[in-house]
From TrEMBL:
<keyword id="KW-0998">Cell outer membrane</keyword>
<dbReference type="Pfam" id="PF01103">
    <property type="entry name" value="Omp85"/>
</dbReference>
<keyword id="KW-0812">Transmembrane</keyword>
<dbReference type="InterPro" id="IPR039910">
    <property type="entry name" value="D15-like"/>
</dbReference>
<feature type="domain" description="Bacterial surface antigen (D15)">
    <location>
        <begin position="498"/>
        <end position="833"/>
    </location>
</feature>
<keyword id="KW-0472">Membrane</keyword>
<dbReference type="InterPro" id="IPR000184">
    <property type="entry name" value="Bac_surfAg_D15"/>
</dbReference>
<keyword id="KW-0732">Signal</keyword>
<protein>
    <submittedName>
        <fullName>BamA/TamA family outer membrane protein</fullName>
    </submittedName>
</protein>
Length: 836
């Protein structure tokens, strides 16, 4: 059970008033010299310089420094530490520690002989003792956010010189030299590392000495894939990678016993200046003994490993020469056999072993699985037996629980209203014996929404809000193979093919209307690699229905007025049938906690209404629209150090009607024709994962803005046909599990086609359309600061973003001049996970 929360546009001007005293105190401390914290005779390491580096990697060399100055970006941590010392007294902390220990020792003595109470008190005493010890060792909480002064150590400087020299030699700078100088001014030390690189050495010959002819043939055949090339600069890191490549190559070729220790690479620099002759030796396991090539003689698959039934033997089913053993074969052996890449008669292969484990893991049927090998005894002592061996492969798979239930309670804070919600999901593994996964989900809750029929409150400057009710459910079935007329499963198994069938239903009730959405999808899912996944949906069908008698008359009149102004919100309240075909390509080399130097690219394309004539013949009263939609989302995660990252993102989206559609607006018997897109297929900007200074879906379009009483209508969603947006974010550690972020977002949405009748009604409406000569002037810009509370299993995020440049503002667009914490200027977003 886990909490979820999302907060947006929350006024908090009192926060600034609380922060002012702290800011003034920090500014006052800037003028204080941190050297007063230094012990007598010690100096502060203030700065490090690296000079003379031309061809070597200066950034890599900087990571070898045995001492680093105190961090200054994004906050001066020594200053924070110095602030904390003003509130810290180690004598007082030690006195409290002794008093606390004495009090708990007395309580423990009084609690005897009650062993349960004694145990509880002992745990409390130890827990409080650890807290006091932490304060004694690292200071108070403010000091722990900062950093103690880095005391200059000449021994560490000498170690750094040695490390830099070793690094340069490992990169082919064999004639290099390094020395360090330090200068002291006002007890602050600047260390300068002087580097003389010399000329780098390059390979002129790459030779091999391999006594085992069978191994030699395989190694020489792989030379086109070698990481070493004549003319390359000598690099021990690449040499190590080449050793690993050769070991993997031979393990995949059947050499089960082969180890990297058999491979040695020797460099000879004595022939000509700045040249290297590199020789690769692959030694035999023993003098006169060749490396043994192993064949898999038999394969056994235990699908209920870890389960023991005394006196009962496992049943055995043989399929494709593989023995499947289980007390009860709950998963059909054919399904498991499709996932096996370890086959009898094949040579041993490390790659096939890992692929088998990965493919069994993707079934989500087992808690864990392993592939173990056992050498079989020789049948004779012939020469062939000395170079050939046999293995028995045993696959052990421990089954996971058949039923898995997840309950999630949480709340939202949107538009000034608190709305609780609950999600319940039930996962059923292997319901039909084919390793399927069947999921049921139910969601119900309340959520605040801006009232689109309301006007701005002149007192508060904020739009009215209403509480909506949402109830939904879905059924999802994942089958671990493609459901297609022919059966190419054995050839596709390495791509982890799956078929997903999903059906969902959502009911939304608001004071102005009720709305239902029923959707069914049929997907084919497969993976090109560990990080790259494709999803092809040949059938995506949704039926959206808003009963006309459920629409409030005043709200309907407001929708018609907005439609006349160019906002097609009224379309989402027609009876619609939306059939489409879509395709998704997703590449993501990051992990859940986003701790890698990684890339993310999601491409999505959708075409809807290709078969609308068929549907309209069957359902003449439903509107079926013909449209196309495309989006591309690229993200780059650059790891600066172990906990600091620079992240940027570009997001592009477009939606366009392909042919005019005839439809009936709600409350009207007259047909209308136009280039119509289903409302849910438009693109939107603003929100916690977009331009965060704007409320969700409230940015744009272009520089056009609807005004009510001379103010922007913050309640109006702003659909667009073209989306361009980007984000730049620097993430850094603050304290323990608390991380910080500073960010800037930019973007907007535009319309792609002109509606001359609406332009005649409102000439400013042309500013909503995309134009090459001005679109770059219409990017909205917002900046802010965020906190991320990383609990490993859950990341809670708080972002505070303010508008910097608003292209839709009716006055000076540089709205940062009007900085404040009101909902019109600043947005507060509290959510789960990272924004991107």
């Amino acid at each position: 059970m886990k909490p979820s929360l999302f907060v947006n546009t929350l006024g908090a001007s009192h926060l600034w008033r609380r922060l002012l005293p702290v800011c003034w105190l920090l500014l006052a401390l800037v003028g204080c010299a941190p050297t007063k914290l230094l012990p007598p005779g010690q100096n502060l390491l203030n700065e490090i310089e690296l000079k003379g580096v031309d061809k070597a990697d200066a950034e890599r060399m900087q990571t070898l420094y045995q001492q680093q100055p105190n961090s200054r970006f994004p906050i001066p941590k020594l200053l924070i530490y110095q602030l904390g010392t003003n509130f810290y007294d180690s004598t007082k902390v030690r006195r409290k520690l002794n008093e606390d220990l004495e009090r708990y020792n007395q309580l423990i003595a009084e609690a005897r002989p009650d062993s349960v109470e004694v145990a509880k008190l002992t745990q409390k005493r130890e827990r409080r003792n650890r807290r006091f010890q932490q304060k004694l060792e690292k200071g108070n909480s403010i000091m722990r956010i900062g950093e103690p002064p880095v005391l200059y150590d000449t021994a560490l400087t000498r170690q750094t010189v040695t490390q830099l020299d070793i690094f340069l030699k490992s990169k082919g700078f064999f004639r290099s030299s390094v020395y360090a100088t330090d200068t002291v001014e006002d007890r602050r030390v600047t260390v300068t590392y002087h580097v003389h690189e010399g000329l780098p050495f390059h390979y002129t010959q790459l030779n091999y000495t391999i006594p085992d002819t069978a191994v030699e043939r395989r190694v020489l055949a792989s030379r086109p894939q070698s990481l070493l090339h004549v003319g390359d600069q000598y690099d021990e890191e690449v040499i190590g990678q080449e050793r690993t490549r050769l070991e993997t190559l031979l393990k995949n070729a059947g050499y089960y016993d082969f180890r990297e220790q058999y491979i040695t690479l020797e460099a000879d620099t004595s022939f000509a200046p700045t040249t290297v002759r590199l020789r690769t030796f692959v030694a035999d396991p023993a003098p006169g003994q060749s490396h043994r090539l192993y064949t898999i003689e038999r394969v056994s698959f235990i699908s209920d490993a870890g389960i023991v039934r005394f006196g009962v033997a496992r049943d055995t089913i043989v399929r494709d020469s593989v023995k499947f053993l289980a007390y009860e074969h709950k998963i059909r052996p054919r399904i498991l056999d499709n996932k096996l890449e370890v086959r009898p008669g094949d040579h041993y292969s490390l790659a096939n072993t890992l692929l088998t484990q990965r493919q069994l893991g993707t079934l989500d049927m087992f808690r864990f699985n392993t592939v173990n090998y056992r050498r079989l005894p020789r049948q004779s002592n012939t020469l062939a037996d000395s170079v050939q061996g046999q293995l028995a492969a045993i696959v052990n798979a421990s089954p996971a629980k058949k039923f898995q239930e997840t309950t999630e309670f949480g709340g939202t804070y949107v538009s000034g209203l608190v709305g609780p919600f609950a999600n319940v999901r039930l996962r059923v593994r292997n319901p039909f014996g084919g390793a399927e996964v069947l999921e049921f989900g139910i969601r119900s809750g309340f959520e605040g929404q801006y009232n689109i029929a309301s006007t701005d409150d002149e007192t508060s400057g904020n739009p009215d809000a209403v509480l909506t009710t949402q109830i939904g459910g879905n059924v999802n079935l994942v089958i671990p193979q493609f459901i297609i007329p022919f059966r190419p499963q054995r050839y596709l198994v390495q791509y982890n093919p799956r078929t997903r069938i999903n059906a969902s239903y959502t009911f939304v009730s608001r004071p102005q209307y009720t709305r239902t959405n029923a959707e069914a999808t049929y997907d084919y899912i497969w993976q090109r690699s560990e990080f790259h996944q494709y999803v092809f949906t040949p059938a995506d069908l949704s039926i959206v229905n808003t009963p006309f008698n459920s629409i409030d008359p005043a709200f309907l009149a407001n929708l018609q007025e907005l439609s006349n102004q160019g906002f097609p919100l009224i379309q989402s309240f027609t009876r619609q049938l939306v059939p489409s075909i879509n395709f998704t390509s997703l590449y993501n080399s990051n992990d859940f906690n986003e701790t890698r130097d990684a890339r993310y690219l999601r491409l999505y394309a959708e075409v809807g209404g290709l078969t609308r004539k068929i549907y309209q013949a069957v359902f003449p009263d439903l509107n079926v629209f013909n449209f196309a939609r495309f989006s591309a989302d690229y993200r780059r995660y650059i790891k600066l150090d172990s906990k600091s990252y620079f992240v940027y993102r570009f997001n592009v989206g477009a939606a366009r009607a392909l042919t005019p559609t005839t439809y009936y607006p709600p409350g009207s018997d007259e047909q209308q024709t136009g280039l119509i897109i289903p409302y849910d297929k438009f693109v939107f900007a603003g929100g916690s994962s977009s331009v965060r200074a704007w409320a969700p879906r409230r940015l744009g379009p272009g520089s056009f803005s609807t005004l009510i009483n001379g103010k922007q209508n913050l309640a109006q969603e702003q659909p667009g046909e073209l989306l361009l947006e980007g984000n730049v974010e620097y993430r850094f550690p603050l304290y323990s599990f608390i991380n910080g972020a500073v960010f800037t977002d930019f973007g907007n949405v535009w319309l792609l086609h002109a509606d001359e009748s609406r332009i005649e009604t409102n000439p400013d409406y042309k500013n909503a359309q995309f134009a090459f000569n001005r679109f770059y002037k219409e990017f909205a810009v917002g900046s802010g600061f965020g906190l991320r509370f990383d609990f490993t299993f859950l990341i809670l995020r708080l972002d505070i973003a303010t508008k910097v440049y608003d292209p839709t503002y009716p006055g000076n667009r540089w709205v940062i001049r009007n900085f404040g914490f009101g909902a019109r200027q600043t947005a507060f977003n509290l959510g789960i996970g990272y924004p991107f």
